[in-house]
Amino acid sequence: MLQGMVLASTSCVPIPGAQFEFWLAGPDGEYSDDYRATLLVDNQGIYRFESNPPPPYSGRPPHIHIRISAEGYQMLVTQDYPVQGEVGANFDIILIRQP
After folding, report:
1. By Cβ atoms counted within 10 A, which residue in 70, 78, 88, 91 is the most buried?
2. 3-state SS string over 6-68?
3. Average pLDDT in the 43-57 region?
4. Which residues contact 62 (CB under 8 A, 6 or more apart)?
């Protein structure tokens, strides 16, 4: 489980309605639509994503691709690297206002 908040960089206030896109490799180390998800954060800027842990593949450690977008903010593309043996992690996101 990956959870956290989406906050504005200038004020640290939550950004409700931000959109998350997650994609990760399946147990066979391949990507498919079965391992993609899109969700919106709640009114307090909180999100929660649950999935099977991704496997390592092609020499890369297990990871989850994440793209976060919100109206008026710059899109952020990043990755989370789950810690082996851990069942969850907090991953807060800070977005920067568009110029």
Report:
1. 70
2. EEECCCCCECCCCEEEEECCCCCCCCCHHHEEEEECCCCCEEEECCCCCCCECCECCCEEEEE
3. 94
4. 53, 54, 55, 56, 81, 82, 84
CA dihedral 56→59→63→67, nearest 10 degrees, is -140
pLDDT tens digit sequence for 62-78: 999 999 999 999 999 99
Dihedrals phi, psi of 93, to nearest 5 degrees:
-120, 135
Token readout for 36 is 């993609």
For 91, what's the count of Cα atoms within 13 Å in the CB-facing half-sphere? 21
DSSP state of 71: T
